[in-house]
């Protein structure tokens, strides 16, 4: 029999204090002054209770790059960040483009047990953008894949993209596009603009992202399919998505924490810790992304947690790997960028980081409202302390965080996965 | 002055003038001879060249040797050092050798910035990718001063592949610091998208700009741009943006023609222009040694006077 927990005095979605009774993996009751014999009490005065966070965009690196991250270390990092489910991107080695690989990743997640691991299937064989992978087999597998993405690569061929969008309709799937026109970004290093001109680095124009998004929303509209846009990074992309939604297009979109907080001015140091795909954009883009997340044009926050070993970043910018880790700092960054600025309340955070990503990924047991009868996926968060980010203290196997030494608010105190704490008192269980 | 010279923007106006004045003194002190000054005796300068550039390496080597520094040439071209992680390993090796100064040429923009994080000695950027080449800008400014005097209000036109040119970036910054007015002339494909944020005018019309220019600096057209679709053909580029004798005739009598070398004769500059009295191309080579001596002296010389005069750092 599993332990019963009585969470005392938590502010559910930032509201008035209430007690939450967790029994047999579900929320047994929620309200003031609950009591339960034999329950383990978790003092949660001052803490915000959120539904367990759901990440639609995580790179766990296993199989293939276990030196950077494993399903075990990545899910521990996820739990420490308040996540109860992550979508593992398909760009592993071998690529997750068959039922066999997605089932392997799914099983590794079950064995690790720190959070649900929902594999993302590749759209095309080997992420090559040429032939559709066996999408149906992955959908029918034990992993029940619903999100398909060649992330890291753009499905740039319009016909392949159209077929993928059509094909996934058969099982209510969604194609998550990494929008990057390949010819416009050959050798690109950073956002094309004032900074790239001054730093003498090959520019990555906003239009390379926006042109693909524009094409894809028109395609999705034409064939009536669901499209998800990964890591939106420009003000122009926001405008296109806003327009598409106004026309009834079934498009959803994500923004990463780093695109909500950091801008391309950081490249001035030539420190490739800030090298990421898509690149950090201008301060004006950051402002547009924050407002788009607030008004719902952008539906969710997704981390694009991208672990890399030290040597992949201790180099010249041009040869460094692209990407940054983000699972353990996401909630703090969202608090800093969205809550402290008054753009989003905690209910909004719950929607953007749990409810909506679970809906897009069709995860029925995740992202449910905190109410009696729901699976007990709960994150307890203390928004009050400010602390300097310490990479050495992270559960991820990699250390490529752009926030090292930066002061950010908040701390995940506890994470419950179906009633079992994966994190308690800020420590992995 | 700052400890490193990585960007021309590292130099204040006073710094830049100090370098140019020091270069002038050092040039006079060593003129006509291979006379050595004892200034940097006991100091070690490493020439770390990840990219082939015999001209620049020899220039730095001569500069360091004329100041009596010990010079170690470390050519990484062609070795396994083209991989990034080796830059850090190389830096650690240099640390072990006790390099006081590291002169680095590298194909990646920003490599000198990275190196500066890993070594204690002064880093001098001898050209990084498509970013900067500050000692080239200093030797160019030195050359202009010798021909034209004070640069305040002088009109300098830089022509060619601005987008990929480290020479152009450093020159725009330094010339602006020194009060000159810079005009960039190039086909629109070879200008950065945000060039309007630079402290320079932009024109697509070389003929219109030439009559009011005191200096015309022609940039080399790199071979790798010729087939990358930046302009239709080399012939068309040459017609629109090359400097031939006919165009040169539009210049004012005092105006000079510069080129950082190596030249593509017949492409961006005609032979009769390169070899004319307006051309400073040969002087630029000699002036390069003086300018680099000044930089090395000011960065590594500590409190010792260069040639009997106290120079503050
Ligand atoms: Zn991506």
UniProtKB/TrEMBL annotation, chain A:
UniProt: substrate binding residues: 59-61, 91, 277, 308
InterPro entries: DHOase (IPR004722), DHOase/Allantoinase_Hydrolase (IPR050138), DHOase_cat (IPR024403), Dihydroorotase_CS (IPR002195), Metal-dep_hydrolase_composite (IPR011059), Metal_Hydrolase (IPR032466)
Cofactor info, note text: Binds 2 Zn(2+) ions per subunit.
Any single Gene Ontology cellular-component annotation: cytoplasm
Binding-site positions, Zn(2+) 1: 57, 59, 151, 304
GO biological process: 'de novo' UMP biosynthetic process; purine nucleobase catabolic process
Active site residues according to the UniProt entry: 304
Disulfide bond is among the record's keywords: no
EC numbers: 3.5.2.3
Annotated metabolic or biological route of this protein: Pyrimidine metabolism; UMP biosynthesis via de novo pathway; (S)-dihydroorotate from bicarbonate: step 3/3
NCBIfam families assigned: PRK09357.1-1, pyrC_multi
Role according to the record: Catalyzes the reversible cyclization of carbamoyl aspartate to dihydroorotate.
Membership in a protein family: Belongs to the metallo-dependent hydrolases superfamily. DHOase family. Class I DHOase subfamily.
Name the UniProt record assigns to this protein: Dihydroorotase
Organism of provenance: Actinomadura logoneensis
Primary gene name: pyrC
UniProtKB/TrEMBL annotation, chain B:
Keyword Transferase: yes
Catalyzed reactions: carbamoyl phosphate + L-aspartate = N-carbamoyl-L-aspartate + phosphate + H(+)
Keywords attached to this entry: Pyrimidine biosynthesis, Transferase
Residues that bind carbamoyl phosphate: 55-56, 105, 133, 136, 261-262
Residue numbers binding L-aspartate: 83, 166, 220
GO biological process, one term: 'de novo' UMP biosynthetic process
GO molecular function, one term: amino acid binding
Domain Aspartate/ornithine carbamoyltransferase Asp/Orn-binding: 152-299
UniProt EC number: 2.1.3.2
Family matches, as SUPFAM superfamilies: Aspartate/ornithine carbamoyltransferase
UniProt function note: Catalyzes the condensation of carbamoyl phosphate and aspartate to form carbamoyl aspartate and inorganic phosphate, the committed step in the de novo pyrimidine nucleotide biosynthesis pathway.
HAMAP family: Asp_carb_tr
UniProt similarity note: Belongs to the aspartate/ornithine carbamoyltransferase superfamily. ATCase family.
Matching NCBIfam families: asp_carb_tr, PRK00856.1
Subunit structure: Heterododecamer (2C3:3R2) of six catalytic PyrB chains organized as two trimers (C3), and six regulatory PyrI chains organized as three dimers (R2).
Name of the featured protein: Aspartate carbamoyltransferase
Lineage of source species: Bacteria, Bacillati, Actinomycetota, Actinomycetes, Streptosporangiales
